[in-house]
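Subject: Protein record for review, amino acid sequence with backbone structure tokens
Why sent: The fold of this protein is of interest and is recorded here as tokens.
Enclosed: The protein record, placed directly beneath this head.
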Amino acid sequence: MHKVLSDKRIILVFMLPATLLFLFIVIVPIFISVHYSTLKWDGIGVGKFIGLGNFQQLFTDKRTDFYEAILNSLYLAALSVFIQLPIAFFFARVLASGVKGEGFFRTVYFIPVIVSTVVIGQMWLKIYNPQYGLLNSLLKYVGLGKLSQEWLGNKEIALGSVFVPLIWQYVGYHILLFYAGIKTVPQDIIEAAKIDGASFSTITFRIVVPNIISVIEICVVLAVVGSLKTFDLIYILTNGGPLHATEVPTTLMFNTIFHRIDYGFGSAMAIFIVLECLLLTVAIRGFFGRFDYAK
């Protein structure tokens, strides 16, 4: 085995299929999108080269609502980092402390991650339904009927209402990541802290958190990038409505390409999303790079 792993040619042979797959599924489409973004093209015939005209239109044409879509995606990213991740960390910390039924709860929390997004979207459409939905019915049952809303039809609260299913779907994924990270913290250090009288919160913030900074970094990157490129659940729940209140760059890109038949402008949006994700990933890694994981 050591002889095989030390042979670089064999390693390259094993890496080649995955590398080619990644190349043709990810890298090549990006370059094709870059080319399309320089064209005025409806997908039929020969496109007209307009250079950076599509990118200029992103921020100058108020009819596209692209600026509002960016703000909505950044808002979702902020909610993911400051609400979803703390919730996930709390449950992971409790599970990792050795509660009864640890394995059962770990599985239950992860179930929404593997359920089809279409199923989740349809379920939350029923929950939010203003006539017979579970949420409004529950509010009326407990005497809070005045709080009943058209949760996905009210422009003021639609984006927040969309975020709740996003939390529900992906919080289990982050719980699993945090749980795995917490389990790598040396137990003898935690036991020594308990003997010295350290509280649960003290152990959490003085011992656990410093030892899983790298895991926290990964979760933040995944939460931010996932929020910036989220599409399916928003498309199912609201398709960017009402009045673009839940519009994000991905839904705007989809509608631009497939409904307005503007491949060039839609490709420019796609390239912007890729660049936005890359820049924020670099920024997040730069921020966490100031911490010494070894400490």
